[in-house]
Amino acid sequence: VGPNGAGKSTLLKVLSTLTRPSKGTATVLGLDVIEGAVELRERIGFISHNPLLYPDLTAEENLEFFAEIYCIENPKQRIHELLDAVELDHRRLDLVRTFSRGMLQRLSIARALLHDPALIFLDEPYSGLDPHAMDIFDGLIASIRKGRTFVMVSHDLSKGLELCSHALILAKGRIVLHQDKALIDEDEFAATYRETVGLGVS
Question: For residues 3 and 201, is the Cβ–Cβ distance under 8 A?
Fold first, then answer.
């Protein structure tokens, strides 16, 4: 978590190889984000408030495109499994531009899971979702959580603290606080977060 402009989305983009760092180094799953970018992309998924889908393709065509990129074995079976899991199998032949915000987000989860990644980055995944869509999203994440690591950026402190095992506050590109959930006092954490909004980056 952190105020607008703190560097949260930039950090996720660097760690997921979508943006090259301007200086310094970063490693994810033991791989350098520059030197090992190709191998790293095979092991991570990315879910954003921007669903990263092609609006003029159907749901099935979108997943077929990404399945080809990742050289997925038995792509039709994998696509069917995922569309069923995100409750979109009945819309598999519909153009993505006809989907609601919640449906787009559910399809973006299917896209991110196609290659069974060990690590999933989530950048404001709840942005624009209504309460029902949020509940569906929570259920999907819970169903795939075992055996995977998630790194999520959120403005929703209560949601973030509910889901996390560790929490980190970022401001001006620097770590202000990093705590194990078991040690977090929610009131103190919220107070520290509020203080970061006054650091000239809101």
Answer: yes
- Angle, to 10 degrees, between the axis of helix 59-69 and the axis of helix 75-85? 130
Residues 122-157: tens digit of each pLDDT = 999 888 778 887 888 888 888 888 889 999 998 888
Determine the Cα–Cα distance for residues 110 and 62; give it in Å rounded to an integer: 10
Task: Please write the tens of the pLDDT for every residue from 89-118.
Answer: 999 999 999 999 889 988 998 999 999 999
Rounded to whole angstroms, how far apart are CA atoms 48 and 9? 9
Whether the predicted model's global pTM rises above the 0.90 cut: no
Give the SS3 label for residue 175: strand
Locate 89 and state its tokens: 């199998």
Contact, 25 vs 32, CB < 8 A? yes
DSSP 20-50: --SSS--EETTEETTTTHHHHHTTEEEEESS
In angstroms and rounded to an integer, the radius of gyration of the C-alpha atoms of the chain is 18
Listing DSSP states for 107-127 in one string gives HHHHHHHTT--SEEEEESTTT
Q: How many CB atoms lie within 10 A of CB 196?
A: 20
